[in-house]
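Support case: user asked for a sample of complex input and structure output to validate their parser. Sending the pair below.
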Amino acid sequence: MAKLDVELTVNGEKHKLKVGSQERLLDTIREQLKLTGTKEGCSVGECGACTVIVDDQAVNSCMVLTAQVDGSEIITVEGLESKSGLHPLQKAFIEKQAVQCGFCTPGMLMSALALLNTNPEPSKEEIKTALEGNLCRCTGYQQIIDAVEMAAEEWGA
Amino acid sequence: MAFKHVNKGVKRVDAYEKVTGKAKFGADLEFANMLYAKVLRTEYPHAKILKIETSEAEKMPGVKGVFTAKDIPNNLFGVIVQDQQVLAEDKVVLAGDGVAMVVAESEAEAAAALEKIEVDYEELEGVFDPLEARKEGALKLHPEKEDNQVIHHPLRKGDVEKGFAEADVVLEREYTTQFIEHSYLEPEAVVVVPNEDNHLVSVYGSIQNPYATRNAVSAVLEVELADVRVIQNHIGGSFGGKDEVVSAMAARAAVMALATGRPVKMVNSREESFTESYKRHPYHLTYKIGATKEGKLTAMEIEAVADSGGYACQTPFVTWRSVVQATGPYEVENVKTDTYGYYTNNPYTGAMRGYGSPQVIFAQESLMDELAGELGLEPVELRKRNMYSQGSVTASGQKLDRHTVSLNEVMDKAMEAIDYKNKYEEYSKEQSGDKKKGIGLSISFRGCSLGAEAIDAAASVIQINKDGSVAVYSGLAENGQGLKTIFSQMAAEVLGIPMSEVEFKELDTSFTPDSGSTVASRATLIGGNAVKDAAEKLKQRIMTFAQDKYELDAEVMELKDGFLYDGQGNRLATFADLTGEMGNTGILMSAYGWYKSPPISWDEEKGCGNPYFTYVYGCQIAEVEVDTGTGELSVINMAAAHDVGRAINPENVKGQIYGGVMMGLGYGIMEELELRDGVIQGTNFHDYMIPTIKDMPDIKPVIVENPDPDGPFGAKSIGEPTLELGSAAIANAVAHASGKRIRSLPLNLERVLIGRALHKGGK
Amino acid sequence: MVEYQLLRAHSLDELLEILDQRENVQLLAGGTDLMVDLHHQDQKFDKIDYLLDITAVDELKGIQLGDKKGEIGALTTHAELVSNPEIKEKLPFIAAAASSIGSTQIRNRATIGGNLANAAACADSFSPLIALGAEVVLRSKGGARRVLLEDFVEWPYQTIIKTDEVLEKIVFAMPQGEYYSSYQKIGRRKALSISRISLTLLAEVENGKVKKAQVASGAATPFPVPFRKVNDYLNGKSYAEIDPVEAGNIAADEMVGITGERWSTPYKRPALGKLVERAVEDLLEEAGYNG
């Protein structure tokens, strides 16, 4: 099958890519762009390990064909750290021990980032709603919530 | 005791790479010239393989090889019993058994080739219930064996007939627990590289127990252990689950890597993971308990039947822990316990966090509440009258006197944390409306580490580099639980250096010594002692050198914050300078640490002895709201008090508590792998539900510290105790709220509303 | 192996042209159902030659709520329904149903049109819209037709959409005067949970009496239907005459009348009855009835 041309901006960088008709955004990110921070946990939109931000919205990248998001702006976990250091969310996750095995972490960070970008002072309920599609089997979630709250405070300050 | 690093909430040393996405997990690895492998698995739970036709598959584009059992040098492996097939040869014994495999240039090409493999089966009758499998004349699933029994563990103490005769109240109850999927977020992945760095094969991937995997691969390939190198990557969770299933994957990939001369990557989809990975044993439990009207237990007779599925896997040891702990932490003079494991054609079962304890605790702690009700005693009171205290003797005849028996303490502290007394009183009164609240508790004792299962020893290597930086190696593996950080803390503590100077290195079987498996909540206890041993050896060497150099007594000098102090607040040298000088004078700046557990004893026939050298104690309390109109269950609050000896990293311990409580919640109220005639119905997370962030109760973790004489800095175990208690606490709370006692897990909508589970097909 | 050609439409005209000209076209919107099928290499792809992505067709987007009429574009995502202030104020039961679907990530992509067109038995978008008496507008190159939503589904996963049609929008009359609503859902956990049972109650009231009640099921029957017997029970009654328990029993009986005794009935009968009972209690409470 012929490949389709798409243009994506990923973590601020423009990419011209050729994608297959069945190629998911997850595949493009991991295999073409070699950004392996985004994970595949279930392939059916039930775990959130593949969460990235597309045009300001958190989405499961396993549920999106790359061709559908031609022209979009994508943020992955690799886009959080900058020359000035770790993002407040990353620092907070480390500070609050919100990381155990680390497999759900990129997805969690993306969902949290999407939240804080639109709602810088979220309530605990709003944090839970933003993260309800991200499963974690290790941490029991509490320290993740603590981390998001801490990041929100630091960011807002 | 004032510690610098130990007993502090030090940040995890491996957090940076995880929050930046830099951490490489198995599926992230890429090697030059890599091939991709896929496995064809049978949908039949029990069938003869008549013929496998692979010629069409071999012709498919991109395919570099199609393999079956005949290509496997030694097709059987296993940690305890070598009955697990790498690929099914004559028979498949469970739905999900691999029968053939393909390696190709891309995953898609491998998957396409799988579809072209033709297998002729002769379906056989299957056995799907261990209670059927044990019957006289049942279909024999492993013809070379006498019957379907995998194992039987007896435990005898006193005379139960006499004990029941002395009882005023005797209760008999049956409980059942379900198949559980580990549900680690990362599906299993391995990459095997042939002929790398003087090794025949190097195995990378999500491997919980690198030495067990090395054993399996070398046994399958029929090569020496030294020919197989296993390097452990970041693992996305394991909880006991990435042992035999990953070893099988590694063995398969190794065969293909050697056949093609190229690296072979094998990554499971979530569906494949569900289909082929082993599960937690479902148990069928019958308990008979006798007590005087004053609430003193006189006898317990217990039978626990575990479903081993198609292979023996860890069944012999899982059921052994059950036989030791089945009575719960209570003094009972007369005990007769029998635990059994039987082969069936269900998915096979193996190690899963708790390892034979969650099942018996659900039963026995539910039973204690039922008994309390019969006797007209409150649940706390019945427990206090019977639970272990200092010097108590267990069902196996072991006197608990080497460590602090802290059941009373954990219970009191948990009760305080959740305001148990007031809530118990409140919710015992009549409640109006459909939504009713209840509160319930459970307590446990847990033997730490392997006990009588195997030799319990671990090793560590510490190298001090010429610039004073320190590398720590351990034979135990970071599974996500924080091992790297804990061991770094211990090394830094002993050597008196900042955490930033310690680097924990990846486990590589070619030089870190075999330390057994990272299981049984033994890493801190056994592995930590090994790290401490290595560090202390080095410290000894340093202090001896310093004593000579500075002509001061070693006793007054101190290694602290990266300096050597003279005992009067003066800095004599930096750690780096001192150790650098030592290296330059030809002193060896590396040390091996080794720790072997204190002796234990077990008489397999009589079921008595000292099975574990130390124990931990825990109490969890659940406050629930039961919607008696819809069957919905909300766990609102949970208190979890655990005696860990010493919390090397309290923040980490809390993380284990939160995580374990949530896993226990899932076990108690929503998780269930549904099988129909051995076939899993629903092989992904939309069917198999684990708790989301919204299912979280408010969890109050309580860390109790009674330093253990054998633990490093007094520390013992936390990983598994946190999971094993939740389901019983919740079941007791539900009974308190609704007046209905549910004896089967999970406590799902149907069981809570109508008292029984419902199944498609009307069973 | 699944094979199809991927097409992308940028306008409604382009979309309709493709549907007219080609055969075996499957529409792709949010993807949260279809991508699961693709992952499973589902057999349905044997009959699919083209996958047509319509997410860029702006004419299918938008929410307009007037005084008398309202319309929701098929490509409206559940996230948009949750956050739209007018929906929250005037049709809160639609926002409630939307917010109970999936997760934030899923709601950001999944569309109301996709939920309806997929027609799973447990699809949550149906009951609020059936309660509104909504119609779907099905457009082809040749024109458009309207179908009452309760007549839209033939069987789970089977609707009466023709191969050259696209579900363009959902249209309905706005509830008039004083009205109250309740959305109820039972799931097996508190998020990412398919409904075990869900339903919507919408009632227009006047002078302490129920003028027009609409109770519609979701995930209780093979496809969502109005509970006409419950509606009949409630219509015309004053608050004092309404017994929520009886309404629940009527609903439970009506459900079993439709489904027959199934393996799940021993649970669903009492649970559905209880949900209807609570929806009616909500109605009475919000209406200010203190009986």
